[in-house]
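Kindly inspect this chain:
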Amino acid sequence: MPKQHPLSPLEEALEAWTDARTGLAREAQNIPAARYGFRPSPGTRTVTELLWHVLEVAAGFVTARALAPVGYGQRASDASTGVAD
């Protein structure tokens, strides 16, 4: 019998995103507002631009998942049972 996973792939992704989001928010709060325009070198993002980039990518993942076909992201071990997340 295949090993049962405590979390579905979607739940795992959401848990990882929650941890990353929490960490990012804490780090962003540690940066003084006056430093949000800091650009380490030409051609790189400022702190503000980097934070926006992370948010945009996250929104893209959420949208992609919401529009994904049924069964997308299903574990191979769950395929034989028809169990999808």
